Amino acid sequence: MKCILLVGLLWLQFWQPVLAQSLAPFQAQSAVTRPYIIELYTSQGCSSCPPAEAWLSEQFNKTDLWQKYFPLAFHVTYWDYLGWKDIFGQRAFSERQYQHLNQKHTRQVYTPQFVINAKEWRGWFSGELNGNFAMPQPEVGVLKVSIANQQLEASFEPLSTWAQDKDLHRVRLHLALVGSGFTTEIKRGENRHRQLTHDFVVLSLQSLPASRVLEHAKDPTLQFTQSLDAIPASAFSAPRLAWVAWLTLNEEPIQAVGGWLEAPQGDIQSQ
């Protein structure tokens, strides 16, 4: 009897069904005007980062969120050597920060670092918070995104006045799953013995080219179709989740959509 019970326990341990989170369907449509993509490069291991993250949360949890402003907190990994491994850190995000440097969007790599529409922004350090967001933005076109059952469908209809002389084949769509409301007890490193809160944390990031570019139609249109990566484990503990999708041309953001997923996250299904 004991042998049978032991075998049963081992079977349960090694053959449990894979669980996957089922997210609510998502649909969004942008305005015509180019928004602000606000990237913050941060780390739980950096003592200067919590104030920047707090400012990001306070500044952009407002009515224009996911319309005019799209904040994204990318947690890097190069602070992990101090003894605390950032639970949200991904090497790909560190590499993304260095890509900004290589593309001359920034002059150096540091944390906390803000990059707004592919340009380094140091106004947070000096208190010059609003000047960068007062600049008029061009009208570029409308982005539509739909996500259901881990399948993405998107289209971008650029204004003909903006699309003139643009190489639309170089447009890429980026999709981030973003989590907010996290709380982490830090036990080592520069922030040891502190409880940190995090909003707009990028949990996953995908990038893809257009699947079709209809340049010779009456109105040029870009279409995107993609099966999405598996939902990351970190999303299971997120108090709030959002999808954020944005387009870039020659690495510069041109349009975006986003929105919170209000459906309960407890919808766990066996696969």
Description of the structure:
The protein starts with a helix and ends with a strand. The N terminus and C terminus are likely disordered. It is of the alpha+beta class and 271 residues long. The chain is 17% helix and 39% strand. The chain has a 5-stranded antiparallel β-sheet.
Question: Over the alpha carbons, how many angstroms does the gyration radius reach?
Answer: 21 Å
| Average of the residue pLDDT scores | 87
The percentage of residues in β strands lies in: 35-45%
DSSP, total strands: 17
Shape: globular
Number of helices: 5
Major sheet size, sense and barrel closure: 5 strands, antiparallel
Poorly predicted segments = 1-20, 264-271
Which secondary structure elements does this structure contain, and how are they paired or packed?
Blueprint: H1 2-14, E1 19-21, E2 26-29, E3 36-42, H2 49-60, E4 69-75, H3 91-102, E5 113-116, E6 119-121, H4 123-126, E7 141-148, E8 151-158, H5 160-163, E9 171-180, E10 182-186, E11 194-198, E12 201-209, E13 212-214, E14 221-227, E15 240-249, E16 252-261, E17 268-270
Parallel strand pairs: 3-4
Antiparallel strand pairs: 1-17, 2-7, 3-5, 5-6, 7-8, 8-14, 9-12, 9-15, 10-11, 13-14, 15-16
